[in-house]
Structure formats: C-alpha cells, structure tokens
Amino acid sequence: MLPSQMEITVDELRNLVTGRAIEGETMLLNMGPQHPSTHGVLRLLLELDGEKVVNCIPDIGFLHTGIEKNMEAKPYLQSLVMTDRMDYLNTVGNNLLYSLAIEKLVELDVPPRAQAIRVILVELQRIASHLVWLGTHALDLAAMSVFLYCLRERELILDILEMCSGQRMMTSYIRPGGLWRDVPQGFEEAVQQFVRMLPGRIAQYESMLTKNPLFLDRTRKIGVISAEQAVRWGLTGPPLRATGIPLDLRKAQPYSGYGQYEFDVPIAYNGDVYDRYIVRMEEMRQSLRIVRQAVERLPAGPVRSNNRKFVPPPRSELGHSMEAVIHHFKLWTEGFSVPKGAVYVAVESPRGQLGCYLEGDGGPKPYRVHFRAPSFVHLQALPLLSRGHLVADLVGIVGSIDIVLGDCDR
Amino acid sequence: MTPIEKAVRVLKERLPDGVQAVESFRDETTVVLSREVIAAACRILHDDASLGFELLAALTAVDYHPKEPRFAVVYLLYSIAQNVFLGLRVYLPGRSPEVATIESVYPNANWHEREVFDMFGINFLGHSDLRRILMPHDWVGHPLRKDYPLAYEEVQYTFNFDEIDKRKPYAKE
After folding, report:
1. What is the domain extent for residue A155?
2. Which domains occur in chain B, in start order?
3. Which pLDDT score, from 0 to 100, does residue A13 have?
4. A28: in domain
5. How many domains in chain A?
6. Contact B28 A355 (CB under 8 A)
7. Which of A45, A382, B74, B162 meets the CB 3.0–4.6 Å disulfide criterion with A57?
8. Which residues in chain A show pLDDT less than 70?
9. A368 vs A342: CA distance, rounded Å
10. Do B76 and A380 touch (CB under 8 A)?
11. Residue A304: helix, strand or coil by DSSP?
C-alpha cells in the first residue's frame, strides 16, 4: 500500500471518528486538498451520514513553509519580506504587524505622516481582502457574477499599492520606523477617487446578495455559533463580532493612530454565515470612512524615523556624510540589533486578531518569531460549526470563516 | 489597582508556591509559573469573573538550547472585559519537556499545543489528540528546535544514492 493511502486508514484517526464509521455505517470522504471551495490546500476528512456531516476533521499543513524557522536565520529587515508571504491577502497588514513588534521592542517612534499612510494602506488592504472573500464566498454559493465584480474593484486597490511600492501584492512597503519611501504624486487623488467610487459598488454587490432568496436559504441559520462558544474557541474578528461581541483591537487597543479616526465596529447577533456576511459588508464601509478621514487630514512631514541606528539614512546624505555611510553600511550588512526581551503585539487583520510574538536576544536576528494566525484558530472551530449540516452548506461555512491557508500554515 | 496587578495578586494568593517570578518588559507583564500549576493558574484566570481572561490569544514555545531549562512555553491570555493581555511562562527542562494541557480550560489550546508538539517536541500531558499538525505525519525531528538544521540534505552520489534515498521521508513505491 502506498504511504499516501496508509495515511487515510481509519486506524490513525480511530479516536476522532465515531464507532459507526468503523462499522461502515457512515462514510468517510476526503474533501480536498485540491478542491476549489477549500480556498487553498485544505483537506477535510468528512464523516458523512448520507448528505449530513457527522464529523469534520481538518487536516492542515499543506502550505507549511517554515517561515518562523526561516526568519530566525535572517536579519530583521530581511525577515520582514517573509511576512508578506504568510497571509497573501493581507500583505500590508502583516508588514505593519511585524514593524510594530520591532518598533515596540526597540522603542522606535513613527512620524505621524507614516502612521496615516499606514492606516490608509492597511484599510485599503482590508477592503481588498474582503472583496476577495466576498467574491469567492459568493462563487462557492453559485453566484458567479459577484466574483467578477469584486476582483475588478480589488485590482484598483492593487494598482494603488503598486503605485506606492512597485509591487501589487508583496509590497514590503511598511518598514520598521516608518515606510520605505514617501507616496508618489497622485496617490491622494487615486485613493480619493477609489473612496468615492466604492460605496456605489458595495451597494451593487448587496443588491445581488443581501435580499436574494437563494443566498438567504444558503446562509441563514447555517454554521451557527454562540457568543460564549466563540470566545471559548478563541474566535476573533468578524466571526466573533457576528455573535454580538464588539471586540475590535483598532478600538480596544488603538495602534498606528487609529484612535483619532471616527468609525464604528459593526456587529450582528445570530452568529451564522449570513451575519458574518453582514458584518464584513459593513466593515468595508467603515474602512472607507477611515480612509476618507486619513486622506483628508494627511499630515506633511517625514515618513521615516530619524533614528539612524534602525532606519537607513536618505541617499542624498551618502555623498557628503561619513556617518551616514557608516550607518548605511551597518544596516545593510549586519542589520540592527534589538535588546533582549520578548513582546507580543496584536493587530486587527481582515480575518481577526493577528498577533506576533517576537523575542530578541540582543543580536541582529530574531531569536524567535511566532505569528498568531487567525485562520489557524478559526479553522479549529470548523468541526463545531459544520456538524449536522449538509456537505453543500459546509462549503458556505468554510467560506464564511474566511481562511487563508498561507496564514494558517505559515 | 490595574487589572494586571490584580491578576498577579490573585495568582500569588491562590498559588503561593507556583508563582516563580513576575517580569515586566515594555508594558507587558509575564508571570513565570512552575510547570505543575499551569492548568490551575489558567483555570483561576479564566473562571474568576472579575479577571475574565476568557480568550487564549496565543500559545507558543521558545527553545533556549543549549541553556537549561531549555524550553519555555508561552501563554498569552486576553481579557475582553478588562482589555488587557497577560503573559504566562513555564520553563521546561530539555530532557523531559512535559507540561499539562490547558485544553479543558481553553478548548482552542488543542491545535496550539499540537503545533508546539510538532515544532518543539514538547509533550502535553492529558492532551486529547496529540498528533503532528503542520509537518507530515511521518516526519522525523522537530523543526523549530535550535539544534535542527535550517536546511540540509545529504549529497547523493551514484554509490550511495539508494541508501540515502531509503531514508528520505517522501512517498515511495
């Protein structure tokens, strides 16, 4: 027998399936790892009674790339590049998280202009991530057109990211101490144009889904979780807010100057697939509100901290300042050293609480980095959400917790 | 009294022998506990309604090889009502890295502990389903240990190709 076949024998999973599966009364079925509705390479081992899901055993790790191990071998600035590759729908947010962790560890201040630009980009990225979620979620539930519209609008956000950093997705634009460089001319106009355009488009998506009886049938009272259970299983972000708990780290523990913007934390109360949809749709509007305020009062000034021990000097100084040359050389060869100690920083990613545990040992490389990935935690609650539902509904439930397997497996 | 000070005081009162140290760094408080009391400490922090550490935010480990105690398991709890994070830390010796599971208090510790087991080889006693989670089920070794190489493959020559191939952990006929 091939090892791959041995893997799915019941022996190893005997304590996870019911006795009925071993007697052959219920059926064991593999969903994935190559399955379009699992949003990446997720394998679900389903125990089915007819069409009903008796149990669902998620099997992850197909996209495990050892990023945490790899980062331990690279200087802080080089390891920043790898954070983009984890949650590939929230690249700017991952950069922000890692930069915030380093900034906390070395006590580095970020100028107000850099903070405002960070907020604009992270919120645009949140909208982009929600657009991909909405498109694929609707596609899973057989609404093809929404997907095409959503990806059309997402492209405009990626254009703005490309405008700033030269890259559509893996931007690495947010750096410890500020930004890579200032935004180019025309950035504010592009953002404002997008902010003016999107509310109409969101209304369009909603007109296709929110009151669509087919969509309602597929989402209402499906994958219900109570507030108490959601907290027990560590859910955060939209899945938690759909159960009525208004936990949003942007409000609870404001970072990057979120405290100065006015926005609401949308919540819903039923904790089903439909409510998670409603929460995310409203979140897009709130993100637009934040972006609008941030662009309108975008302060002038530098976009990088002036602390040359951590932030490279501007190129213009390299021609006449020996000290700048020394700093430049030190930063791009050895990298900067951080003090001994550990910090935990958490931000609100589109999926939930994204945390970074960063430990330094006094040297230029992180001693230990761990990312608390919301997808990892949420996927764990999938068996609870899906028990008793039809296989077709499982597709909607997987879509509604909005997992990114790159985030989950790291 | 801040919620953190209160939590530390409650832990010291209820577990006088268990609290080994209280560390503060960059406005974050970490309580170092002995490994016997970790489940009890989590139970206290979770159940005490005035503290309300209901959410297990993260659970991970650090390898201090070759120092002893070699491993540290790090728990980060979050209180929604008080809006604070509290860190717990347990040091484990390199020879027998074992600690009790906190799955009964925080069900979502299940996968976190599996990940730590997979990556560090730390054994969580009483865990309901301690299998590898990220690495393939037949993988040898624990990748995030400091004595595990970042990348290394034995060089295969014609004369030892089959011998080395036999040891490689991928599916063969």
Report:
1. 82-306
2. 3-137 (3.30.460.80)
3. 65
4. no
5. 1
6. no
7. A45
8. 1-15
9. 9
10. no
11. strand
> What is the tens place of the pLDDT at every residue in A202-258?
999 988 888 888 888 888 888 899 998 999 998 999 999 999 999 999 988 999 889
* CB interface of B with A, residues 115-144, below 8 Å: 115, 119, 128-129, 131-138, 143-144
Whose tokens are 């697939």? That residue is: A273
Distance in angstroms (rounded) separating the CA atoms of residues B14 and A49? 48
Given a contact cutoff of 8 angstroms between Cβ atoms, the answer to whether B89 and B30 are in contact is yes
pLDDT digits (tens, 9 = 90+) for A346-357: 999 999 999 999
Please give the single-letter amino acid code of residue B73. Answer: V
Q: What is the pTM of this model?
A: 0.88
From CA A343, how far away is CA B58, in angstroms rounded?
12
What CATH number corresponds to the domain at position A129? 1.10.645.10
Q: Give the whole-angstrom CA distance, residue A230 versus residue A232.
A: 5
In a domain, A238, yes or no: yes
Block means of pLDDT (10 residues each) for chain B, length 173 residues?
A: 85 85 87 90 86 89 88 92 90 89 90 92 88 84 84 77 80 69
Biggest alpha carbon–alpha carbon distance for chain A: 81
Q: Which residue of A has its CA nearest to B57?
A: A234
φ and ψ of B74, to 5 deg? -115, 130
> Between A66, A245, A370, which is nearest B143 by CB?
A66
A268: three-class secondary structure by DSSP? coil
Please list the residues that pair with B87 across neighbouring strands: B30, B76
